[in-house]
Design goal:
The chain has 223 residues and is an alpha/beta fold. It has a single domain, classed as P-loop containing nucleotide triphosphate hydrolases (Rossmann fold, 3-Layer(aba) Sandwich), CATH 3.40.50. 27% of the residues lie in helices and 22% in strands. The protein has 5 helices and 12 strands. It has helices at 27-40, 102-111, 133-139, 183-191, 198-218, and strands at residues 15-21, 45-50, 60-62, 68-70, 72-74, 89-92, 115-121, 142-146, 148-149, 156-157, 159-162, 178-181. The strands form 4 sheets. It has a 6-stranded parallel sheet with strand order 5-2-6-7-1-8, with helices on both faces. The protein has a two-stranded antiparallel ribbon with strand order 3-4. The protein has a two-stranded antiparallel sheet with strand order 9-10. It starts with 14 loop residues before the first strand and ends in a 5-residue tail after the last helix.
């Protein structure tokens, strides 16, 4: 279990927390965990995601192991200011896909006393800072960096390597499009098109299936 920021100043609730890392690192899972803890504490919460993210569900935030929580898809970050009245905790998933105004919006929400929890990829498939994430990381009071396991080296994965030859920056997918790689493996994969094998793809698909099955067994009431 990851450490969660504590309210060391109970009267100072407004803040920004960022959860970042590569694909398959557990970012959304940690976001869902924090939001559920807030719900258990009887706080008023709302969760949002970009309108374009419909991989698993149109009205839920869903992790790779199929852990889910209801959410509201929105086309632009400015809508957060219109949809968060009387809310104490706001969750934002896939922040890298939002517009560049998201950091400013999150700051306004935090300044108004709202706890803002943001999850997203810190690096794109080229290994460059992704969208509004760098500014969010600079503005946040708390940053949690999570890691997947590299499918080639077994080390901590820092990169999300795209398997297709597409240069599109925004291309939704999971096991069919991306694999988590360490820095060493990422550099190797960029220079060697045969470095990622079919066995590597089978391994990551098997891992995702096993994770989803395990999560379902832990919570059999979840669909």
């Amino acid at each position: 279990m990851l450490p969660e920021p504590s309210d060391f100043h109970i009267h100072q609730r407004g803040r920004i927390e960022v959860i970042c890392g590569s694909m398959f690192s557990g970012k959304t899972e940690e976001l869902i965990r924090r939001m559920r803890r807030a719900q258990f504490a009887r706080q008023k919460v709302e969760i949002f995601k970009p309108l374009l993210d419909t991989r698993y569900s149109e009205d839920e935030v869903v992790s790779h192991d199929r852990n889910a929580i209801p959410s509201t898809p929105i086309p632009h970050s400015s809508q957060l200011l219109l949809l968060t009245s009387e809310v104490e905790v706001i969750g934002i998933d896939e922040a890298q896909f939002f517009d560049d105004e998201l950091p400013n919006v999150c700051s306004q929400l935090a300044n108004s006393g709202i706890r803002v929890i943001v999850a997203g990829l810190d690096l794109d498939f080229r290994g460059r800072p992704f969208g509004p994430m760098p500014q969010l990381l600079a503005l946040a009071e708390f940053v949690t960096k999570v890691h997947a396991i590299c499918v080639k080296t077994g080390d901590l994965a820092h990169h999300s390597f795209k398997l297709s030859g597409s240069d599109r920056l925004v291309e939704l997918g999971e096991k069919e499009l991306y694999v988590p790689l360490s820095r060493e493996a990422f550099l190797r994969a960029q220079s060697d098109p045969n470095y990622i094998t079919e066995k590597d793809l089978v391994d990551i698909r098997t891992h995702l299936v096993d994770s989803a099955t395990s999560a379902q067994e832990e919570d059999p009431t979840r669909e």
